[in-house]
TrEMBL record:
SUPFAM superfamilies: Carbon-nitrogen hydrolase (SSF56317). Residues 60-324 form the CN hydrolase domain. Keywords: Hydrolase. InterPro entries: C-N_Hydrolase (IPR003010), C-N_Hydrolase_sf (IPR036526), Nit1/2_C-N_Hydrolase (IPR045254), UPF0012_CS (IPR001110). It comes from Triangularia verruculosa. GO terms for molecular function: omega-amidase activity. PANTHER family: NITRILASE-RELATED, OMEGA-AMIDASE NIT2. Signal peptide: none annotated. Belongs to the carbon-nitrogen hydrolase superfamily. NIT1/NIT2 family. One of its GO terms (biological process) is glutamine metabolic process. This is Carbon-nitrogen hydrolase. One of its GO terms (cellular component) is mitochondrion.
Length: 357
């Protein structure tokens, strides 16, 4: 009669107990039956098991301010100031988001002429050199809000060679006191070519950023900020979620081809994949001939991928109350955080991640 592998294991262990003087059994002496499997899944990162109520420490209203951009930078800046003030009064928002390239027309032909440097001393911006920085700082301070300042074309001049210039698509994030908390340079440049629909090549003028941007808002928790085309790359969102963010915020300017196809879909996808809030803030649509036609439809999505608020095409403010209990409710009901298989695939948040330019 053939002895089963399991019975063989038991006989070896029983023999050891009956004869304590016997030499200790090495692991190699114990045959492992095929029904046993070595488990090597590492413990999940702390952010995956942190209750949602601690990710978002208290409920907060977030507002997306959907604005048109004109050819006048000063007009765009003053319009943004009045629109944010009105939005804060009507919604009581404490986190406010502006659109991508809110201070200028969107287009490679426009980036160089509208670009401005960031101040070497953020506490002392120059009205002549840094008008957009100064305007955003003032908007945040006067309205006492966390301001995700959409994005602006940023100019960087080489110190060693003043004729060498680089341009970035950059978001500036300010605190309620007007302090600059972080900057995010668009990591993935919008280079696409859909035959008979649209061709756009940001890399003709812009350089890419080189970091993921996570900001801690002391009263609320962590948010991640990225720009437009960045949303198509789920790695940024996955890492931000694993690092404990309660919201992903994307100023973006999708067009009339990609907007109807993917704008809402991508917002919902990033939300459902990561079980957190997602906000997308677009410019209002301008149908003037020869300008970039933004899709509009700024929206806010909850951790179960339900759209809480969505704008139309024109100038509009949409807002929603973000509640940490909704994050935990989603993660408890569909417990992805406890079911990931890092023995099968890697945890991208534990790889080489850049948080500095």
């Amino acid at each position: 009669m053939r002895t089963s592998p399991t019975l063989g294991v038991l006989r070896i262990l029983t023999s050891s107990l009956a004869h304590p003087s016997t030499r200790p059994i090495s692991r190699a002496q114990i045959p492992l039956p095929s029904l046993f499997r070595k488990m090597s899944t590492p413990a999940p990162p702390p952010a995956q098991t942190t209750p949602g109520t601690t990710l978002l420490r208290q409920p907060v209203t977030l507002a997306c301010v959907q604005l048109p951009s004109t050819a006048s930078k000063s007009t765009n800046l003053s319009h943004a100031a009045s629109a944010v003030s009105s939005a804060v009064k009507s919604t009581k928002a404490k986190i406010v988001v502006l659109p991508e390239c809110f201070n200028s027309p969107y287009g490679t032909d426009h980036f160089p002429s509208y670009a401005e440097p960031l101040p070497s001393d953020p506490a002392n911006p120059s009205p002549e050199l840094n008008p957009s920085f100064l305007a955003l700082q003032k908007i945040a301070r006067e309205n006492e809000v966390y301001l995700i300042g959409g994005s602006i074309p940023e100019l960087v001049v080489s110190e060693s060679d003043p004729s060498s210039k680089k341009y970035y698509n950059t978001s500036l994030i300010f605190g309620p006191g007007g302090k600059l908390l972080a900057t995010h340079r668009k990591v993935h440049l919008f280079d696409i070519d859909i035959p008979d629909k649209i061709k756009f090549t940001e890399s003709d003028i812009l350089s890419p950023g080189n970091k993921l941007t996570v900001i801690d808002l002391p009263e609320y928790g962590k948010i991640a900020v990225a720009i437009c085309y960045d949303i198509r790359f789920p790695e940024l969102a996955i890492i931000a979620a694993r690092k404990g963010c309660f919201a992903l915020i994307y100023p973006g300017a999708f067009n009339l081809t990609t907007g109807p196809l993917h704008w809402k879909l991508l917002g919902q996808a990033r939300a459902v994949d990561n079980q957190l809030y997602v906000a997308l803030c677009s410019p209002a649509r301008d149908i003037t001939e020869g300008v970039y036609h933004a899709y509009g439809h700024s929206l806010i999505v909850d951790p179960m991928a339900q759209v809480l608020a969505e704008a139309g095409e024109g100038e509009q403010v949409v807002s929603a109350l973000l509640d940490g209990s909704k994050i935990e409710e989603a993660r408890k009901g569909i417990p992805l955080r406890d079911q990931r298989r890092f023995d099968v695939y890697p945890d991208v948040s534990e790889g080489k991640v850049s948080y500095e330019e």
